[in-house]
Amino acid sequence: MKGDYLGEFEEIVMLAAATLYDEAYGYAIQREITANSSRTPSLGAVHAALHRLESKGFLQSRLSEATTKRGGKKRRFFSLTSYGKRALETKRNLRESMWRKIPKIVFEDLE
Amino acid sequence: MDDNSAPQQPRWPLSLLRRLLVPAYVDEIEGDLQEVFEEKMSRYPAPIARLLYTLELLSFLRPSLLKPRAGHRRNTSDKFRYDLKIAFRVFARRKLFTGINITGLTIGITAFVLILSYVRFESSYDLQHPNASDLYRVTLSNDGGANTIAANHPAVAAAMVREYPEVEAFARVVDKKILFGSFVLSYHSPSGEVIRTNANDLKIYIAEASLLQMFDIDLTRGDPETALTEPATVVISESTAQRFFGKEDPLDKILKIDNKDPARVTGVFKDLPENTHLTFDMLISFATLGDWVNTIWIYPEFYNYVRLHPQANPEELERQFPQLIQKYMSEVIEEHQLDVEFGLQKVSDIHLKSSLGKEISANSSEETLYFLLIIAVFVIAIAMINFINLSTAKSMERAKEVGLKKVVGAQRSALIVQFLLESLLVNLLGVMLSMALLCALIHPFNELVGLQVLSMDLWSEGWIWQVLASILVLGGLLAGAYPALVLSQFRPVQVLKGKYHQSKWGTILRKGLVVLQFTISIALMAGTFLVYHQFSFMQNKEVGYNMHHNVVINAPVVISDTSVQAQMIHFKSELERQSGVNGITLTNDIPGKRLDFHNKVRRAGEARDNYPETYLIAVDHEFLPTYEMKLLAGRNYRSDEATPFFGESEPIHPVIINRTLSEILGFLAPEDAVGARIAFTNGPRERDSRIIGVVEDHHQQSLRQAFEPTLLYYPKHHYAMYMTVNINREDWGKTLRDMEKAYAKTFPNDPFNFFFLEDQVMRQYEADVRFGKICLLFSILAIFIASLGLFGLGAYMAQQKIKEVSIRKVLGADLIEVLMLIPRSLLQLILVAGLVSLPLVYFAGHQWLSNFAFRVDITIWIFILPVVCVMFVALLAILFQSIRVAYVNPANTLRSE
Questions:
Q1: Would you give the DSSP letter of residue B357?
Q2: pTM for the full model?
Q3: Angle at B751 (CA atoms; ends B747, B752), nearest 5 degrees
Q4: Considering just the CA atoms, what is the radius of gyration of chain B in Å?
Q5: B32 touches chain A (CB under 8 A)
Q6: Which of B121, B423, B562, B856 falls between 20 and 30 A from B267, CA-CA?
Q7: Sequence-distant contacts of B255-261: CB under 8 A, at least 24 apart
Q8: What is the arithmetic mean of pLDDT over A38-53?
Q9: How many whole angstroms separate alpha carbon B240 and alpha carbon B106?
Q10: DSSP per-residue codes, B782-817
Q11: What is the pLDDT of residue B235?
Q12: Residues B662, B665, B667, B672, Cα dihedral to 10°
């Protein structure tokens, strides 16, 4: 499991974290994913993925100050490490280079 | 929680999370959940929101977010893994011992399961019916319970339903042979084709429609409500339907009895399972018989089944039977001087517990099953003993391991767990291998026992897994317990110093177990010898008539056709002209089976209350010569001595009786009987008769039965079911072909149907032969496993003595002397085992032999032979090891010390 492999769900979680930039904590990320795709991951799954990604070194986290909201509980904000950014980029490059290689004719009949 | 007016989250899920999750994560997760809750509350009514919230919360229960398990548990799993590793290393190091253990266990478990499945099958008879526990058969005794028969009068069950509210339903069944004799069944297809079969090839009963419901017989075609209710209707099995109609729809097709009487097929049932006492291919409706049967109280040929109310007490009911008998049968009792008793017999008990007169099919005995179960337990016990013996014997090798482990802090309990684990593992391997073996043995085993006992469905049945699991656990723990206790008790200080002795007690125990193994092996072997001895005695003893040269032809009897008699005589004279035929007789029964007819007989002038029973055979004047039976006194019939049995004036019938009947009738010598007047009941009345001859007893049935009183009479209008032809053994094939040709010419509409009398006689021993084979197989297995263990022990003992042998060799001992060193103690053990098994075998054998009217004696050879055999096998196993040790160069073993 461990290592530098980035699973599909993990990638989406990271993309969501990147989108939210400074406001990326568990519940916000879940909402972000729900907003962008048709699926609603469970909050537990999101949290598990976040902690897994952190232990792999793709994400880092910091705790916010306690506020009166949320029953006085702190938030853990996640942000991408440079290693994480590179992993996302690699993945994107791989995709794009492969997309480019697909002959046009393959998708022509869709139009 | 700062705002009291805000709706509260459900409490318990949160506290659950706090308890289970990684503490570092709890805070942030709770915060997130608070937001979730607020959001849900804003969108849904409170109960739904709470539910959604709780579901979301439960999604946190995943391994990566949970607290790791407590520290000491993880240690256990490490130890477990380590123990496994050690176990496999030990197995690999001691390939021979592990191999012996696993092989023994595999065979033992396989044998155990095979026997168990056979026993289960045998005890499953007639349990498949929906009300199996409420079904009873009404039995009959005419002599106050001394002889009980399975059949009863046709009016009985109907009267019971009338008289007793707790009798809910009844069904009567009668063998078609009793009422119709033999007949030919044929089907004339629309295309003009005729399919014929002799009805003796099929099991046909006349039965009431209620039987279908009572015995849960599934009609695949036809209406169970109306099938079999009208006269001249039949239901047939699927395979019978196939036989006559092929792929055509059998419903409402007409089968012809003797080419004329039509019988309409009103239903088709699935072929019956093997585990029922009443199997049939065809049922003829009871209504066919007409009403007369309902009032008949003196025709004990009908099987009366009743279904009781589930709460009814059968004993209570039985106590009321005398009143019923008094009410309906007083006249009959008065006339025939009977002491009538009825009994209730559970249908599901019939196969194992019933061996009455007129049983429908040959039943098994519980005793046989117990015997087999004992063998099963023995076989598996021997395998377990192997394991115990080999493990404790080899315990020295583990002593250092145990010592060292204890030094570094292992507790005894941990060591016990380790050794139990090893034992479980060996058992597990044994169980898995025997599962594979069982799959392979399904077909051969069915073949051996002649029943469809096993199939792949075995694995979908619960019991097999229970049995295997209990063998695994019980075997693993019981057999593993002693070695584990022994191995774990070594004291580290002594062991590591190199001082260890095996306890005296351990050696005695091991010897005791070996003696036990051999006692079992010898007893099984002796038992098998005895069984074989008895069976070969039964099959080879002179039966008292010639069975080797006789071919029996099923007579083509068409009841109402009077021309048959003439045709038979014509056919007979045709055959008599053939050179290969020595003699022909027409009879209504033959030896090699239970006689169908029996009735009362008494000496003329003797009181009627002294009324013995005798079997009856209708014969002709050629019966005695054809069967080569020996006349003790008097003479055979002359050809003109046939007497009419119908009509007003009857002559005095000349009869021939056998020795047993002459003794029963009170004649001191056979000669005294000749000329004496007797009366025997046949049909509705007594027949006055005179004895003209007395023949030597013959074994009508198997040698289990004592000689039976038999009376031969010679009726004029002969209703012959069998034609027995005594043929020359030379060129019998041609004789048979000629007979068939002559038969086809005389009876163009009847199939030629014959069998060799010898086959018929031997068929009685089929079950015995099978039982013998099973005994033989499993006792060989037992001895094999025991020898395997011995082989292992021998190897161990040889190893132990290797230094002694070497020193002796150095000092000049010769090879033989050294060779004898190891086996001597072993031979003593075998002798002890022989002595222990002697009384066991004697009493068990005596008990078993008492089932047979004619039996062998238990001779001393029964004991000597197995002991010698076991010694031989044991010596072979040991000698192999001894020789290896004896040839070792002393220099190699003595160098290191």
A1: B
A2: 0.70
A3: 85
A4: 38
A5: yes
A6: B121
A7: B255/B185, B255/B186, B255/B187, B256/B185, B256/B186, B256/B187, B256/B188, B257/B180, B257/B183, B257/B184, B257/B185, B257/B199, B258/B183, B258/B184, B258/B558, B258/B559, B258/B561, B259/B184, B259/B186, B259/B558, B259/B749, B261/B232
A8: 86
A9: 43
A10: HHHHHHHHHHHHHHHHHHHHHHHHHHHHHTT--HHH
A11: 93
A12: -70
Contacts of B85 (CB under 8 A, 6+ apart): none
Given CB atoms, is B25 within the 8 Å cutoff of chain A? yes
To the nearest 10 degrees (0 to 180), the angle between helices B412-449 and B766-810 is: 140
Q: Which residue's entry shows tokens 């010598």?
A: B669
Q: Does B29 contact A47 at a Cβ distance shorter than 8 Å?
A: yes
- The whole-angstrom separation of Cα B517 and Cα B523 is 10
Nearest residue to B351 (alpha-carbon basis) of B441, B218, B216, B451:
B451
Q: What's the whole-number mean pLDDT along residues A20-45? A: 86
**pLDDT score recorded for residue B502:** 61
Check CB contact under 8 Å for B32 and A71: no
- B278 contacts B173 by C-beta, under 8 angstroms: yes
Give the distance from residue B370's alpha carbon to the nearest chain A alpha carbon, in angstroms. Answer: 58
Burial (Cβ within 10 Å: 0-12, 13-18, ≥19) of residue B433: middle
Selecting from A25, A42, A63 the residue whose C-beta is nearest the C-beta of B56 gives A42
Regions of chain B where pLDDT drops below 50 = 1-5, 71-72, 557-560
Tokens of B456: 């792949």
pLDDT in tens, A48-84: 888 888 888 889 888 887 777 777 788 888 998 998 8
Q: Is B64 on the interface with A (CB under 8 A)?
A: yes
Residue B66: closest CA among chain A residues belongs to which residue?
A48
Q: Would the CA dihedral through B642, B644, B649, B655 be positive or negative?
A: positive
Q: Is B592 helix (H, G, I), strand (E, B) or coil?
A: coil
The beta-carbon neighbor of B31 closest among A45, A48, A74 is A74
Quick one: closest CA in A to B60, which residue?
Answer: A44
From chain A, pick out residues whose CB is under 8 angstroms from the CB of B28.
Answer: 25-26, 63, 73-76
Chain A interface, Cβ < 8 Å to B? 25-27, 42-45, 47-48, 51-52, 63, 68, 70-76
Task: Name the residue with tokens 């997760």.
Answer: B29
Q: Are B826 and B870 in contact (CB under 8 A)?
A: no
Strands B302-308, B167-175: pairing kind: antiparallel
Longest Cα–Cα distance of chain B, Å, equals 125
Residues of chain B with C-beta less than 8 angstroms from the C-beta of A71:
1-2, 30-31, 34
Q: In B337-411, which ranges are continuous DSSP H helix?
A: 350-353, 366-393, 395-407
**Angstrom distance (rounded) from CA B176 to CA B172:** 12
CA distance B205 to B280: 7
Which among B162, B177, B124 is positioned nearest to B306, based on CA atoms?
Answer: B162
Q: Which residues pair with B138 in a beta bridge?
A: B304, B344
Nearest to B65 among A48, A70, A73 (CB): A48
Q: Is B877 on the interface with A (CB under 8 A)?
A: no
Question: Contact A71/B61, CB-based, under 8 Å?
Answer: no
**8 Å CB contact of B25 and A48:** no
CA distance B286 to B158: 13
Please give, rounded to a whole number of angstroms, the shortest distance from the CA of B58 to a CA of chain A: 8
- Answer yes or no: do B34 and A43 touch at CB < 8 A: no
Q: Does B16 touch chain A (CB under 8 A)?
A: no
Alpha-carbon separation of residue B97 from B87, B108, B284, B790, B826 (angstroms): 13, 16, 64, 11, 19
What is the reported pLDDT for B107?
92
Q: How far is CA B814 from the centre of its chain?
A: 55
**CA-wise closest residue to B293 among B134, B154, B137, B177:** B154
Cα gap B157→B522, rounded to integer Å: 52
CA–CA gap between residue B733 and residue B736 (Å, rounded): 5
Cβ <8 Å between B62 and A45: yes
